[in-house]
Amino acid sequence: QDWDFITKPLREEQPIPEATTIFTDAGKKSRKAAATWKEGTQWCHKILQAHPEDSLQTLELLAVVWVLSEFKGPINVVTDSFYVAGVVQRIEDASIKEICNKRLFDLLMQ
What we know:
- This protein is α+β, with helices and mostly antiparallel strands.
- It has helices at 56-70, 82-90, 102-109, and strands at 20-27, 32-39, 42-49, 75-79.
């Protein structure tokens, strides 16, 4: 007997009602990435330091990777990075091969 499995995507096209919304950003000059979210009436944040080899794109990706690894349950992630939004959109179906940029490879493998 042949089984056909249909995988349910982990990503939604529209915001998830009642889910925590986390805003991410990064600064090229500051060499930091940040995630900001609200818990009740309190705003919380996490500041992430860049590695020496980070570009602005890998810093933006670092913030989203941190969010995805730290938050459990449904979340909405907001990024202003077209690059990161594209990566997130395609990552579920992707085969990741080793690439020259070790930092990018490490982030994608998380």
